[in-house]
Amino acid sequence: MREAELRRLLAANLLGAFSVVLTAVVPGFFWDGFTVLGTHLAWLCVCSVCVSALNIILHLVLKPSLSPKRSSFAHKISRFVKCCMYFFMSCILFHAIIVLYGAPLIESVTETFLFAVLLSTFTTLQCLCLLGPNVQAWIRVFSKNGPVSIWESSLQITTLCSILGAWFGAFPIPLDWDRPWQVWPISCSLGATFGYVAGLVIAPLWIHWNRKQLTYKSR
Fold this sequence. Notes:
The protein is built from 8 helices and no strands. It is mostly helical. The radius of gyration is 18 Å and the shape is globular.
């Protein structure tokens, strides 16, 4: 494992975590009354857009999954369209899963869908940037001993942390505390965000700590 590659991963992940913090702070300078809790739906949109843009830019700059094969322009367009379709399908799937887990079916549809978009941004978008619209590669990465690079290990960790964070964030909702952050889906989206940021920080540290045990093989 090359130390330079691990440093690139650490820099990219820390930049991603810092961008999430900025989405909660910077809009307040341009939008009177903007807060994560008070204007939560607006923050969901801002966070999703900023994290998506940063992930795409980092992928284009760092090129962690650069293939030696050069594809045609038509292939790139087809790949882009597939990625857009997969992301939209992921939003619909997350929305359906969230409803099955107890979210309002008819009420708060906008809130639930924007939460689904945030989850897709933290999980599916990263898979699309790193692996492309290749479901078999996704299954491989999230199987036991599946990752073949530190980038895929980081993807595995941050995705699982995001989903676990959203799940743990649902615990306070039914409690009779009458807190503003218990309004749907604030605690879940904050949990997913904290999980995502924690995953970005934990992943490089875990890889560095276990670098002697990690042996990546091309597949």
